[in-house]
Write a structure and sequence with these properties.
By secondary structure, the chain is α/β, with parallel strands linked by helices. It is built from 14 helices and twelve strands. The protein folds into two domains: 3-249, Type I PLP-dependent aspartate aminotransferase-like (Major domain) (Aspartate Aminotransferase, domain 2, 3-Layer(aba) Sandwich); 252-385, Aspartate Aminotransferase, domain 1 (Alpha-Beta Complex). The radius of gyration is 21 Å and the shape is globular. The model has no long low-confidence stretch (mean pLDDT 96). The structure holds pyridoxal-5'-phosphate.
């Protein structure tokens, strides 16, 4: 079956009530008919749910969908995107190991790699996402994993997935890809050889700004390791959030089509604005990695970044001038969202370090929503004209 059909029709078995939409299973534990059955489920000779930190039917349905949509054997759901990222590290890395990571990654992931893991004796070296020829030089004898995000947040850099996975194979490293910006509808990293795929389901997968969630997808063997880590340490997804996210996947394809259509139209419009130095969107031919983006993704995604003239001051002015778009710390919502990293998410970072991550003073990120494109454009236009 095709992507859209699997996203809708993979479903937990119906209960005796014959509900059409899937039931939700908010139960912390599950009962057994006998001591023998309980023993069988505990020892694994019989399948069954024991306790919702281990497994839950609502969570299972979401996991089966994610695995199917990412074209991999297995997936495990987590309480948030960061829980997925962290589990994908700790399930495979130990003291003395080294991680290679793209410099262009989500802020909290950068903190985990630079500080949290370091305190446990796991080191990290950052590489330039756009210069694959320099990656190999950073590999050490103890490098166990290459971690990337593509397209990246907020700079929309593209990682060459085939090249990276080939390099990882040659050096026996795990290739771990944050596929949050693209979603499995636009890009399936496993097709290019990724071993692990992590998601913040909070973003486009929920798509309506309601719940936090995450997932790690990959081979049975790899996901079993992540599963054991989550099961023991407790960053499991709640049944309610899993149910919401599973329903969200039913509309992922149509939502992403419209996010991408609106974003491309807005990106084309922004390129003509005289208040803007440059626009970055993977499917604009002016993007320096346009060809690569076209090879790996079916559409350009819902996020645009652009560089305003006038630096920090105009960034703040622009945010104050928008009327329809929301000022909020999220992306991938039905509602369009604008943010100015230099005065918010990256405020505390030393300027030099921030600039080296491509987060310039005038950089604005727009998560293009599902409102009518005419209204989105009009709002951005009046805000730009007010500068
Ligand atoms: C938001 C985000 C995360 C973290 O997800 P949470 O659900 O907020 O924990 C990780 N990676 C990317 C690219 C994100 O945008």
């Amino acid at each position: 079956m095709k992507f859209e059909t699997r996203a809708i029709r993979i479903q937990t078995e119906r209960t005796q009530h014959r509900e059409h939409s899937t039931a939700i299973y908010p139960s912390s534990s599950f009962v057994f008919d006998s001591a023998e059955q309980m023993q069988a489920v505990f020892e694994g000779s019989e399948e069954g749910n024991i306790y919702s930190r281990f497994s839950n039917p609502s969570v299972k349905e979401f996991e089966e969908k994610i695995a199917s949509l990412e074209n991999v054997e297995s997936a495990i759901a987590t309480a948030s995107g960061m829980a997925a990222v962290f589990a994908s590290f700790l399930a495979f890395l130990k003291q003395g190991d080294h991680v290679l990571a793209s410099r262009a990654i989500f802020g909290s992931t950068f903190q985990v790699l630079s500080h949290t893991l370091k305190e446990y004796g796991i080191d990290c070296t950052y590489v330039d996402p756009c210069k694959p020829e320099t990656w190999k030089e950073a590999i050490q004898v103890n490098t166990k994993m290459f971690y990337v995000e593509t397209p990246s947040n907020p700079g929309l850099d593209i990682i060459d997935l085939s090249y990276a996975s080939q390099m990882c194979k040659e050096h026996e490293m795990l290739f771990n890809v944050d596929n949050c910006f693209a979603t499995p509808y636009l890009q399936q990293p496993a097709k290019f050889g990724a071993d692990l795929i992590v998601h913040s389901a909070t973003k486009f997968i929920d798509g309506q700004g309601r719940v936090l969630g995450g997932a790690v997808a990959g081979s049975k063997e790899h996901i079993e390791k992540v599963y054991q880590f989550i099961r023991r340490t407790g960053a499991c997804l709640s049944p309610f959030n899993a149910w919401v996210l599973s329903k969200s996947l039913e509309t992922l394809a149509v939502r992403m089509d419209r996010h991408c259509q609106n974003a491309l139209e807005l990106a084309n419009y922004l390129e003509k604005s005289k208040n803007i130095n440059s626009v970055k969107y993977p499917f604009l031919s002016s993007h320096s990695q346009y060809k690569l983006a076209k090879k790996q993704m079916t559409q350009g995604g819902g996020i645009i970044s652009f560089e305003l003239k006038g630096g920090i001051d105009n960034g703040i002015k622009f945010l104050n001038a928008v009327k329809l778009c929301s000022l909020t710390a999220n992306i991938g919502d039905t509602r369009s969202i604008v943010s100015h990293p230099a005065s918010t998410t990256h405020l505390r970072m030393p300027e030099e370090e921030r600039l080296s991550l491509g987060i310039t003073n005038g950089l604005v990120r727009i998560s293009v929503g599902l409102e009518h494109i005419d209204d989105i454009k009009q709002d951005i236009e009046q805000a730009l004209n007010s500068l």
